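Worked example 4.2. Below are the chains of a multi-component assembly; read each line carefully before continuing.
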Amino acid sequence: GPVLLQTYRSIGDYQKNSKYELSVGTGDILEVVEKSENGWWFCQGDGKRGWLPAAYLEPMDGPDEIEEQEPNYEGEVYTVVKGYESVQEDELSLGEGDTVEVIHKLLDGWWVIRRDEVTGYFPSMYLQKAGAKP
Amino acid sequence: SIHQPPMNPPPRPPAEQRRKQA
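Applying the procedure described above to all two chains together yields the following structure tokens:
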């Protein structure tokens, strides 16, 4: 049968940085085709298709549609596969090869992680589950 | 391929949503 795609509304203006992304304005309606764990969602709307940051999208079906995982305060061990320098004060700066504990996997691709008792946000794109093959 | 997500981390949530999360 037909695949029913979830409908989302853009909550901000987003200007694309590559041809594979979409530019949207606040209030634009989009269908989400694929949700990547790194926070980029493949969307279609108004005859266009491309990637959008999940952080700019809210579900039309209402906020009771819970997809977000619960935090895991014990932490799940991940390895940093690409270094990142914090831009905002609630982010962590880490180098390639560092080991961290993932506390909360947020859909927007910015996960809450802990290292040396310090907690902050880090791009999930630069993390890999410890022991996993790339 | 177009079906590969961008190589850079997506931007953080716009300010309005960050307030809602807090």
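Take a moment to check your reading of the output against the notes. The mean pLDDT of chain A is 92. The CA atoms of residues 19 and 132 of chain A lie 31 Å apart.
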